Amino acid sequence: MIPRPTYQRDAATAAIVHFGVGGFHRAHQATYLDTLLSVDPAAGDWGIVGVGLRPADAAMRDALLPQDCLYTLTLKHPDGAVATGVLGAIFGYLYAPDDPEAVIERLADPRTRIVSLTITEGGYNIVAATGEFDAGDPDVVSDLVPGAVPRTVFGYLTEALRRRRDRGLPAFTVMSCDNIEGNGDVARRTVGAFARLVDPELADWIETNVRFPNSMIDRITPATPPELRSEVLARTGIDDRWPVVAEPFTQWVLEDSFSHGRPALETVGVQVVPDVRPYELMKLRLLNAGHQALGHFARLLGYTYVHDAAADPDIRELLRRYMLDEAGPTLDSLPGVDVDDYVATLLERFSNPAIADTVARLCLDASDRIPKFLLPVIASRADEGAAAPLAAAVVAAWTRCAEGVADDGVPLELSDRRAPELIDRARRSRADRLAFVADPDLFGDLAEHPEFTEPYLAALDGLRERGTRAVLAELIR
Ligand code: NAD
């Protein structure tokens, strides 16, 4: 028998409104609050009212409302163990197109103290090339018409904050939990930019009164596979219309910056800190760059799944040494964080077959990822007068993938918005050896630094002449 939440659940009292109730929110933030509500009777108001803005969210409404917004989370462990629990921190759900005014009033309600977001990277409506708010987006244009019924999160937040200001109520906190570097800063910039277009005085009030904490969030949560519902039913007897599955690992580092109070999240494992940045760097250089270190070699060796590649002893050792010898020394030490343990946990997470993450997904848009995650390690090592030959070899493996053939001769397709130029540069690098890394947009001036180019070219030559297996063996010898 799976226990159900025993705490009081009343949507009218919930102090958090959340936009973007998808798999990740239900596997992450909502689980911390579920634990808090279970252990601390004084935390009773920190329940969540979910809000969906997009047509696809009607399905979440139809799944959650008939089951009183209760749902199951199934954790799949690397050793094959499976555990399912029933979570209750979501007290209510509003599908905004059903009643936009109800959503605005829920946000403007004095009881609402935090508005949290997992609206995806694209939800912040930023022009990639400039980093500026895209005021030309058709939904934004529609929301800027005076008196319009909002369509975007910006429209809802701004109108609700206007009402709060006019009613003399304190502002709520806007807490982004999306996977974006400086997510709170991005939310502050985009909400501020929209509000300024609506009403500059209101924008000033928001700037002064609304806090936008940054956060580092981590738990791999795949989209719900179609077979999960029957699997959960067979194992637990619970027929959940939209169950969630995730890995057991979870982390949430949150900047302590709130406009109108916050739950005592530190009592349930959230690291509430003054500055999230060093934690974010650790994740980017170990987890995200680690994915790159694994992905391109794994593609050349013909692996489909991340867990199979992570079990390959050569790849695993390369990954471990990249993380410990090259990335680790570039990170500031953090209280309570042991990098060796973090790396061991990452290797275990990458090896989890139940997550079934694909190598192709890791290598997608590498031209966005390598410059953000891996190259800063090379640059930071160079600043210290140290080399990063393993990171340089990862760039060589990427170059080799852009040549379009795996070691066994199978063609490799490059899924990258810069694919044509990457393929062209990789082809030219046969004669003009540094052609791939001579693009300043991606590599800055790295092509002029022998501490990078020497190990890079050695690895690239080796991959072409002796193959991936031989190069990996040489790198980890
Ligand atoms: P999901 O597809 O299950 O849910 C996404 C939700 O965002 C949906 O409710 C959708 O309607 C909403 N949304 C999308 N675009 C929007 C927009 N423009 N305006 C308002 N709402 C919008 O996805 P998920 O797995 O829950 O992931 C959501 C986000 O969480 C990711 O984009 C990422 O930033 C973060 N995250 C996810 C994971 C993970 O492993 N899934 C891990 C860390 C962080």
From TrEMBL:
Entry keywords, A to Z: Oxidoreductase
Signal peptide span: none
Keyword Membrane carried by entry: no
rRNA-binding recorded as keyword: no
Record-annotated membrane-spanning stretches: none
Residues annotated as domain Mannitol dehydrogenase N-terminal: 15-266
Mannitol dehydrogenase C-terminal domain residues: 275-460
The reaction(s) this protein catalyses: D-mannitol 1-phosphate + NAD(+) = beta-D-fructose 6-phosphate + NADH + H(+)
Identification of the protein by name: Mannitol dehydrogenase
Species per Swiss-Prot/TrEMBL record: Tsukamurella pseudospumae
